């Protein structure tokens, strides 16, 4: 009877969690859709560039702003600024640079090829500016707003066209030393306060060189109303990506543009941060009761079952050897920038982990015994497909709609399969060595930390080629935390690590193949 009561209690708890999660999901989706109320959104392609036009309902011409995304981003990442501007009486145009988002044109194969990179970025910017000018107010002027990588090409365009570009707002920008900022009218640099001080200092130095005086964060020199405004602002609590969603950054940009255009805004700013957090918390929470519905593939938990004494050499060796072995090897075997290296890193890391497991077993280091009941492979296959569906649909579609492009289109599907070869090796090997009866407590988290340290070592060994991996290491950490939690629930129900491993591998392969730029 006590056992039956506990079972009923768990079932009621799962039902309660499912109901609360569904309410959170539906409520957050309503809030996210309501953010575009009163805004007309239309899409088109010009010269192959995907563009999206945001404008107040019923308004044809208004002060116009071109909005550009950063490296490994997409135009959907810039929705908060586009919606904020449209709700405040502006026309906003977003677009995908070549190789990013839904733009199939190839990006530059080497970020160090500055001339080619700028030519490709300019080819994407030009039709966006032309569309903005079509819908601009009678003054025929536009403003530019861009993030990270876009800062350089926007600054050059603004400097070359001071007669049409009335203001530029650059968010955490990259500015090459050759880029002239002196001719730019009304230049505002906005950084996240949590970004490295080195980045703040670079922006301050560029403004100080133009103004011939020291510049401090929060100061405005000149005035946007007269066209000679210069300033650098910090957004509290925001880092390189968070600055795109922070209300403080949107308010700074809106005020700067209002003063530059002589415009009066009356709407609020986009506040999707809380709704997004609620949405994904609901989706993660819903996975817990759903995991209990999965078929059990084995009567006893499967896995290597390595205690810490036998696990540590298996876990540490790949973290050190992988970046050292890949250091002298050339990249470029896949037409995707940095994604090819990530795939190799995952794949070799997984192979070295399996080799370490073989070595431990050869020395009598444990593992499964022949007496264990057989695995029901049909149940395991069904569970794996169900988990893949939830990871690939329930989690991916909302990100694609409200955060950044994440659903692969036809020209990226082959890349997903190629990268999956590497991620499947890693996740299968890692899940196996950290699961099973007798597995070291905290082993799963420790191996993920070691992988991130290994990736950091790879960047340190080849900073010129792999620098931008630094930006995505926090994203990989979030991926490990969220998907690791989900795969843990799956494992405790299915009793086999393969279901969660393959679902994780496919989700990560898809994310890498879609977010990193395709190159020629």
Automatic annotation (TrEMBL):
Keywords on record: Aminopeptidase, Hydrolase, Membrane, Protease, Transmembrane, Transmembrane helix
GO terms (molecular function) for this protein are:
aminopeptidase activity
Which Pfam families does this entry report, sorted A to Z? Hydrolase_4
Q: Could you identify this protein by its name?
A: Serine aminopeptidase S33 family
Calcium as UniProt keyword:
no
Q: Which organism is it from?
A: Marichromatium gracile (Chromatium gracile)
What InterPro entries has UniProt attached to this entry? AB_hydrolase_fold (IPR029058), FrsA_esterase (IPR050261), Hydrolase_4 (IPR022742)
Q: Where is the Serine aminopeptidase S33 domain?
A: 64-188
Record's PANTHER family?
DIENELACTONE HYDROLASE DOMAIN-CONTAINING PROTEIN-RELATED (PTHR22946)
Q: Which residues cross the membrane?
A: 275-299, 311-329, 341-360, 380-399, 411-429, 441-460, 466-486, 498-519
């Amino acid at each position: 009877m006590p056992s039956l009561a506990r079972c009923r209690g768990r079932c009621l708890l799962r039902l309660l969690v499912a109901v609360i999660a569904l309410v959170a999901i539906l409520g957050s989706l309503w809030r996210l859709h309501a953010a575009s109320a009163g805004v007309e959104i239309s899409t088109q392609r010009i010269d192959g560039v995907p563009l999206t036009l945001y404008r107040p309902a019923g308004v044809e011409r208004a002060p116009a702003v071109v909005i550009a995304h950063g490296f490994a981003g997409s135009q959907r990442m810039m929705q908060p600024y586009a919606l904020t501007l449209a709700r405040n009486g502006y026309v906003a145009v977003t677009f995908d640079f070549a190789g990013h988002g839904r733009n199939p044109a190839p990006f530059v194969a080497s970020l160090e090829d500055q001339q080619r990179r700028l030519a490709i970025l300019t080819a994407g910017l030009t039709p966006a500016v032309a569309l903005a000018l079509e819908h601009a107010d009678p003054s025929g002027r536009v403003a530019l707003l861009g993030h990270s990588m876009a800062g350089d090409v926007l600054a050059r365009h603004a400097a070359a066209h001071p007669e049409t570009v009335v203001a530029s707002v650059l968010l955490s920008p990259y500015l090459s030393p050759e880029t002239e900022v002196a001719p730019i009218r009304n230049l505002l640099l906005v950084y996240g306060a949590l970004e490295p001080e080195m980045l703040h200092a670079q922006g301050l130095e560029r403004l100080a060189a133009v103004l011939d005086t020291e510049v401090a964060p929060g100061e405005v020199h000149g005035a946007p109303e007269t066209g000679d405004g210069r300033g650098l602002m910090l957004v509290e609590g925001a880092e390189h990506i968070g600055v795109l969603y922070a209300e403080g950054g949107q308010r700074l940009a809106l005020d700067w543009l209002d003063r530059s255009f002589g415009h009066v805004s009356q709407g609020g700013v986009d506040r999707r941060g809380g709704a997004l957090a609620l949405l994904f918390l609901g989706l993660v929470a819903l996975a817990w009761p759903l995991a209990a519905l999965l078929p059990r593939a084995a009567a006893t938990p499967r896995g290597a079952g390595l205690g810490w004494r036998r696990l540590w050499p298996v876990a540490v060796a790949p973290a050190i050897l992988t970046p050292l072995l890949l250091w002298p090897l050339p990249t470029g075997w896949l037409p995707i920038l940095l994604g090819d290296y990530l795939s190799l890193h995952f794949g070799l890391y997984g192979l070295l982990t399996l080799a370490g497991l073989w070595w431990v077993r050869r020395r009598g280091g444990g593992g499964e015994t022949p007496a264990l009941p057989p695995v029901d492979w049909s149940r395991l296959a069904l569970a794996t497909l169900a988990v893949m569906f939830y990871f690939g649909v329930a989690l991916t579609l909302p990100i694609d709609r409200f955060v950044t492009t994440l659903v692969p289109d036809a020209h990226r599907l082959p890349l997903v399969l190629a990268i999956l070869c590497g991620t499947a090796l890693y996740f299968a090997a890692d899940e196996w060595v950290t699961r099973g009866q007798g597995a070291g407590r905290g082993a799963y988290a420790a191996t993920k930390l070691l992988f991130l340290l290994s990736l950091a070592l790879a960047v340190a060994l080849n900073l010129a080629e792999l620098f931008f991996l630094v930006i995505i290491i926090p994203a990989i950490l979030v991926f490990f935390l969220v998907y690791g939690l989900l795969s843990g629930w799956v494992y405790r129900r299915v009793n086999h690590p393969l279901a969660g491993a393959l679902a994780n591998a496919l989700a990560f392969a898809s994310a890498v193949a879609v977010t990193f730029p395709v190159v020629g």
